[in-house]
Design a protein that fits this description.
A: 479 residues, alpha+beta, Peroxisomal Thiolase, Chain A, domain 1, 2 domains, nine-stranded mixed sheet, five-stranded antiparallel sheet, 12 helices, 22 strands, 28% strand, B: 2 domains, two-stranded antiparallel sheet, globular
Chain lengths: 479, 402
């Protein structure tokens, strides 16, 4: 049997980074103690980002970077899945241009949703490649410790056989009712128990028990582990677990608490990506996922790791940040602050589901058309060609990865927009197609006619009346 | 062989309500205010009107998109009353319907009437709403200033202008219209504004500031049309006739192909060319006496001067700064204050422009009166520059017969 393992990976960390000192300063009047944990910054989602859009970004970069073939499954992992009933993975797969003839799963229910799905994909990847993506965007009450500690990110892995950057050595799981925190269905926030108890009674007992057995059964000792990925940001946790397992302290992978915060179900995978970025051929990487028991996955880097280049590596994603110090903006984007956007915000964002399905390739995959008569690429494809009027059926032209530039634009302060001003303008694709689009993550002084653009999948409108989101593509400057 | 509308239709009466924030009036009041003036002017009875075209673009307050709000408000039952809508070009569309009915010989007297009640939304600017199930999925929201601001971006890029030079020219456009509006008792905004105030106003959609945007107003305007022969029979001596009525709509080419650079309005160019041909005008810059153009935004007026062939491409800024379009310039433009100051009740605006040209041609424009105008052009533009309805109407004196 062929070895199975990881073929490639890519991550996404929202570029918005909130300075923790600014959060602590806002709460200093009530909770001065927050200043003690006000180090570094945490990533957070823009108003139009969530677990689905972060996953799309991570998977698209993954697909661009690697030569994957015959992808037969996609698993979307999150504790903040956008839909409870409607397959989130179906949106991710469409936006990533994956074929409909595949398995798509949502994995949720705990912070080890990502590691569980990764192990499962590895165990069932005999035929074709699988994609596992984990992303989380957890809410936290203002002035809570979680508001300081949490972050947002997505991490995507391709697994299968063939060209591997890391092969699976072993994996195991157990199950346990240890409740370090919980979030009930429909609730907005997590409820946490005391950190010291979580560490001493949870991490330090449940993890060494499972990992120790796995090491022994594979004839290994902790000293032979080169990278230990344990995602908790409870201070000292990973080090304490490592010490019990006799894993060297310098093998403990930095938990990224200072750079982006705890990114939930994405975090174990994010740390695995960080370990792979540094790993040398032959290095052993141990990944632990924790929640209602734990998962352990032991990998060994192959020779191919030497020349491997991730779609977006952890260090690239960390460095592509935009520092934010306006706490109110962070609150508004996180849904914790209801702004008065005026009467223009009162519009009805009802989505006609039959209409959306009819144009699903346009909405979810940004597929344009090419006229069979004159060859003009166009979006949206209509019955008659925009250039010559021919009524011949058009061939599909994917535009999501087509490069483009600004033809016209404005910064509109009048229209309702949750992150004013609304940048909107005509986008000219290099293949000749053109359409009017929203433009996001714009740096005003570096933006003009001719600025190069790429496409990103984002939330288009929020329908609060029906608890529905609709998604579409937006243009953003090429970084 | 079709010969066009030229000299086939005379306007014998026009009315225009006071434009502005008419808190005391609904659409029904505005419609009657305009019609009473027009009937008096025409010297006919309401019962003589045989068909009506009612233009209203966004009013959903009454029974929805039918003409019933007009037929009931005006108590004009038992005759065809047709609702027309073509965004901000609606007023000109209503006139086209009425004029064509007369030209076809189907009726003797037809009424074109447009009205809009915009000040019942609770906020400034145009009302917002769904754009239909498909557009809501595939396109971003675009406010009117957001759409037209992009014309400034495209124009600046094409001619390599600095942001400030274009901003100065745009400010000069609005400054001139405020000068004119101050002299018009029916205008919404009757106040002069300094260039400094215009240039330093808050941004609405970059680079358009608040003074680059026209007023959003309540109002109604109307025209009673008949044939030149019937007009003469009524004792009308100075005949104002329609010389051209043209309309051009986007096919999607501007928004959907790489053909358009964003610096002009394609359909204004097409409509103007056809209108000049219909009216027999070969040198518009020399032959046209005055213009009322769709200055929904200052940049629209600037670009329209080139689209209408009055200024050469890239030359509008110079003409504007030279005062070519001022009240005492070679070709006064927006002599009534324009959309900028007279105001912009969507469905009425096309007819309000025709109203000013009509008054000027008849020498009835009071302190705004120009010297011996013979041809007046009005230009009415709906939508956004890359997806629009462009209308051009030309009025003149006489019908070519002695």
């Amino acid at each position: 049997m062929n070895a199975v393992g990881i073929k490639s990976y890519s991550v996404y960390i929202p570029r918005l980074r909130m300075e923790r000192a600014a959060i602590a300063a806002a709460h200093a009047w009530a909770v001065p103690g927050l200043s003690a944990i006000a180090k570094g910054e945490r990533s957070f989602c823009s108003w139009d980002e969530d677990a689905i859009t972060m996953s799309v970004d991570a998977v698209r970069a993954l697909l661009r970077s690697g030569s994957l073939n015959n992808i037969n499954s996609l698993t979307f992992c999150s504790t903040t899945a956008v839909f409870s009933d409607f397959l989130n993975a179906s949106v991710v797969s469409a936006a990533c241009g994956l074929a409909g003839s595949m398995t798509a799963l949502d994995s949720t229910g705990s912070l080890r949703a990502g590691t569980s799905a990764l192990i499962r994909a590895l165990q069932s990847s005999a035929v074709g490649d699988s994609v596992v993506v984990a992303a989380d965007n957890r809410r936290a009450k203002p002035a809570s410790a979680q508001e300081m500690q949490y972050g947002a990110a997505g991490a995507a892995f391709a697994v299968g056989s063939g060209d591997l950057i890391a092969r699976v050595v072993a994996a195991d799981s157990n199950v346990n009712q240890f409740t370090d925190h919980f979030r009930s269905t429909g609730a907005n926030y997590d409820y946490h128990w005391e950190e010291r108890w979580v560490r001493d009674e949870g991490y330090l007992k449940i993890i060494p028990d499972l990992v120790g057995k796995l090491l022994v059964s594979n004839g290994l000792s902790g000293a032979q582990i080169n990278h230990f990925c344990f995602a908790s940001t409870v201070p000292g946790s990973a080090l304490s677990v490592a010490k019990i397992l006799k894993i060297p302290a310098d093998a403990v992978v930095d938990n990224l608490a200072v750079r982006c915060g705890d990114t939930g179900a994405a975090h174990p995978l994010l740390l695995l990506a960080a370990a792979l970025e540094k790993a040398q051929p032959g290095d052993r990487i141990l990944v632990v996922g924790f929640g209602g028991g734990c998962d352990v996955l032991l990998l060994e880097a192959t020779e191919a790791i030497r020349d491997f280049c991730a779609g977006v590596s952890v260090s690239q994603a960390l460095n592509d940040g935009h520092k934010e110090t306006q706490y109110n903006k962070f609150l508004a984007f996180s849904g914790e602050l209801k702004m008065d956007w005026g009467m223009r915000a009162e519009f009805d964002a009802k989505t006609s589901l039959s209409q959306q399905y009819r144009v699903r390739e346009q909405v979810f995959s940004l597929i344009g058309g090419r006229c069979a008569v004159c060859g003009a690429a166009q979006f949206p494809p209509m019955p008659a060609c925009v250039r010559c009027g021919a009524l011949e059926p058009m061939s599909a032209v994917p535009l999501a990865d087509e490069s483009a530039q600004v033809v016209t634009f404005t910064a509109d302060w009048l229209s309702y927009y949750p992150a004013p001003p609304l940048y909107v303008g005509l986008v000219q694709f290099d293949n000749g197609a053109r359409t009017l689009m929203e433009m996001v993550d714009v740096e005003p002084d570096q933006f003009d006619v001719g600025t190069r653009l790429r496409m990103v999948f984002r939330v288009k409108d929020r329908d609060d009346l029906r608890d529905h989101l609709r998604y579409f593509w937006k243009a953003t400057p090429v970084g | 062989m079709a010969t066009g509308i030229k000299d086939k239709v005379a306007i014998i009466g026009m009315g225009c309500s006071k434009f502005g924030e008419r808190w005391d009036c609904g659409t029904e009041h505005l419609l009657n205010e305009a019609l009473q003036e027009a009937l008096q002017d025409a010297g006919i009875e309401k019962q003589q009107i045989e068909a009506v075209w009612y233009g209203s673009a966004v009013d959903r307050v009454n029974v929805g998109t039918s003409a019933i709000p007009a037929s009931t408000a005006l108590r004009m039952g038992g005759i065809p009353v047709t609702r027309v809508e073509n965004m901000c070009a609606t007023g000109t569309e209503a006139l086209r319907g009425a004029a064509y009915a007369v030209a076809a010989g189907v009726v003797d007297f037809a009424l074109a009437i447009g009205a809009e009640k915009l000040k019942d939304t609770g906020y400034g600017g145009l009302p917002t709403g769904t754009r239909g199930t498909l557009n809501d999925l595939l396109f971003p929201v675009t406010s009117a200033p957001g759409g037209f601001a992009q014309l400034a971006t495209g124009y600046r890029a094409r001619y390599g202008m600095s942001k400030q030079d274009l901003k100065n020219a745009m400010a000069r456009v609005s400054w001139k219209s405020h000068q004119n509006g101050a002299k018009n008792p029916k205008a919404h905004l009757q106040k002069e504004v300094s260039l400094d105030a215009i240039l330093n106003a808050p941004l609405i959609a970059d680079p358009l500031g608040i003074y680059d945007c026209c007023g959003v107003s309540d109002g109604a305007a109307c025209a009673i049309v008949t044939t030149p022969d019937i007009a003469r029979g009524l004792g009308k001596r100075d005949l104002v006739t329609i010389k051209a009525l043209q309309l051009s709509l986007s096919s999607g080419r501007e928004i959907g192909t790489g053909d358009w650079d964003g610096s002009y309005v394609l359909n204004t160019r097409i409509a103007a060319k056809k209108a000049y041909a219909e009216a027999g005008i070969s040198r518009p810059r020399d032959e046209i006496s005055m213009m009322e153009v769709h200055d929904c935004f200052s940049i629209t007026e600037l670009v329209t001067m080139e689209d209408l062939g009055i200024s050469v491409d890239g030359g509008a800024v110079k003409d504007i700064m030279d005062g070519f379009f001022d009240a005492d310039g070679r070709m006064p433009c927006q002599i009534d204050g324009g959309l900028k100051c007279f105001g912009h009740p969507i469905g009425a605006s096309g007819l309000r422009m025709v109203y000013e040209n009509y008054l000027q041609l008849l020498g009835r424009a009071g302190q705004r009166q120009l010297k011996n105008p013979v041809l007046g052009l009005s230009h009415n533009l709906g939508g956004v520059p890359f997806n629009c309805v462009s209308a051009v109407a030309i009025l003149g004196l006489g019908d070519g017969r002695v």
